[in-house]
């Protein structure tokens, strides 16, 4: 990931392109619309897990959210998101190099946690992915306050699989609509987007 974000950082410095938006812009719109529809207060503390280029946080800030934190274990990703934040003039976004699987003590008490592809990446780790997924769920339980919301977008997991992964400590609130496709006479989704609430 460091190498990928170093390339994106160089591209941003060269031509001002912030890089790829995971799951496309509609995934950010979907998240922001959900927050607005549920009248989530603008001063709610929001954690973007695996923030990458930080573009989601910038869009949240443009929508009026003001207590925003982004973490990524890649220092290059945080450097890139800092540059994107500066370019957009969003000084209220906090960014930190942090490994969500072994988070610092201050990474707790958030009202909202958002994941667009980080759980997917953790799940693909060739070194004991099952244990890392368990660690992720445990870290999420510490980061998110009771009653807080967890919005996850995944391309690796179905709704049923995610319900199983997050069954301890979280309950499903809603499945967000995502683009559908038809293959072999069956209809499916290439992306799953769910909202959980911490018990």
Describe this structure in words.
There is one protein chain. This protein has 7 helices and 9 strands. The protein is an alpha/beta fold. It has one domain: 3-Layer(aba) Sandwich (Rossmann fold), CATH 3.40.50. Strands 3-2-1-4-5-9-6 form a 7-stranded mixed beta sheet, with helices on both faces. A two-stranded antiparallel ribbon has the order 7-8. Strand 1, helix 3 and strand 2 form a beta-alpha-beta unit. Helix 1 runs parallel beside helix 4 (75-88). The radius of gyration is 16 Å and the shape is globular. 37% of the residues are buried.
Give the helix/strand layout:
Elements: H1 2-15, H2 25-37, E1 45-49, H3 55-62, E2 67-72, H4 75-88, E3 93-97, E4 110-116, H5 118-123, H6 129-143, E5 144-154, H7 159-165, E6 170-176, E7 180-183, E8 186-189, E9 192-198
Parallel strand pairs: 1-2, 1-4, 2-3, 4-5
Antiparallel strand pairs: 5-9, 6-9, 7-8
Keywords:
seven-stranded mixed β-sheet, 28% strand, globular, Efm4/METTL10, S-adenosyl-L-methionine, cytoplasm, methyltransferase
Strand content: 25-35%
Counted by DSSP, the helix tally is 7
Derived structural class: alpha/beta
Average of pLDDT: 89
Q: What portion of residues is helical?
A: 25-40%
Number of strands: 9
Radius of gyration: 16 Å
Number of structural units classed as domains: 1
* Span of the ends, CA to CA: 33 Å
User: For the record, what CATH class applies?
Assistant: Alpha Beta
Low-confidence runs of at least 5 consecutive residues: none
Oligomerization status of the protein chains: single chain
**What's the main sheet like?**
7 strands, mixed
CATH architecture: 3-Layer(aba) Sandwich
CATH H-level superfamily: Vaccinia Virus protein VP39
General shape: globular
CATH topology: Rossmann fold
